[in-house]
Design goal:
With about 290 residues, the protein is of the alpha/beta class. It has helices spanning about 10-25, 55-60, 85-95, 115-135, 150-170, 185-195, 205-210, 215-220, 245-255, 270-285, and strands at about 40-45, 65-70, 75, 75-80, 100-105, 135-140, 175-180, 200-205, 225-230, 260-265. It is about 45% helix and about 15% strand.
Length: about 290
């Protein structure tokens, strides 16, 4: 499949709707139907079980409905390329009823997509895994050594890598979700430059806050370019820190977002599990669930 060329963000949004509808009908994009509202998941690293199928059992115990699973590199390849590893997760999903809404490759922070060819290989393999396991989103992070803020050359190289991967992702019905400290305008710039509905934004509330952006303006600006979201407050338990989750809920409603809100807790004053249980209870109250 040849890469598509689009004129800008408006065209991308039109293509996103068609791409998401087609992928969802094929069972590729995980997420709740609009009428069921937002569902709550958790990152496997947040519960201390990166790349471990036992994360699903613990998430279910905590009352969560999904787990964002780490695609862990082992040597030059991903562990989940192995069929037995895939079966372990499939068994865990069947046993617990806990879903996998998305994958993430955290190693791309230290081995950046725009600097190291290993990263592009892992992401390409991740698309294969996501297609096989019918998971529709792969988080592509740009933090630490991979930070794109104020790095025009790095952004250009990242765009080039995403352009090379986008046709494969489109064909597989998989979205590559960019998460970074860039503003909404910066994320739009990347999406416009890549020109594919298979490249979207993974939005994180605490990232915007720490970067000094207006969270709710950013959410409303990005709109349907957001494919999934992290619920995170770097200061304290939810409702006690810096993030106004009631305002976030209103902004999510304003853009028609009804996907996953994935907890990426970073403060555990009550201990890890009790803090996450507190955060989830708070979010359920805010979202009326």
């Amino acid at each position: 499949m040849k890469p598509h060329k689009f004129s800008g963000t408006v065209t991308i949004m039109i293509m996103l709707a068609a791409f998401a509808a087609g992928a969802a009908s094929a069972g590729r994009i995980s997420g709740p139907a609009a009428e069921t509202g937002v569902k709550f998941g958790v990152c496997d690293w947040t519960i201390g079980k990166s790349g471990d199928p036992a994360a699903l059992e613990l998430a279910g115990k905590l009352g969560l409905e999904g787990v964002q699973v780490s695609l862990v590199p082992k040597g030059d390849s991903l562990v989940l390329l192995q069929k037995d590893a895939q079966r372990a997760y499939q068994t865990a999903m069947e046993k617990t009823g806990v879903a996998i809404p998305s994958f993430a490759i955290g190693d791309l922070n230290d081995i950046p997509l725009h600097k190291d060819p290993r990263a592009e290989k892992w992401l390409s393999e991740g698309i294969d895994v996501a297609r096989e396991m019918r998971v529709g989103i792969i988080l592509v992070p740009f933090f630490g050594p991979a930070d794109l803020k104020d790095d025009a050359a790095g952004e250009k190289a990242a765009v080039a890598a995403l352009k090379r991967l986008a046709p494969k992702a489109e064909k597989a019905g998989v979205v590559l979700a960019v998460e970074s400290y860039l503003s909404a305008a910066g994320h739009r710039r990347i999406i416009d430059a890549v020109g594919s509905p298979a490249v979207r934004v993974y939005y994180d509330t605490a990232n915007s806050q720490s970067a000094g952006y207006d969270i709710n303006a950013e959410i409303r600006d990005l709109g349907p370019l957001i494919c999934e979201m992290h619920a995170k407050d770097d200061k304290d338990l939810y409702g006690k820190g810096d993030i106004d989750f009631k305002a976030v809920r209103a902004s999510m409603a304003a853009i028609g977002y009804s996907g996953w809100f994935v907890l990426e807790g970073s403060k555990y004053p009550l201990g890890r599990e009790q803090s996450l249980a507190y955060d989830l209870k708070f979010l359920r109250e805010v979202f009326g669930r």
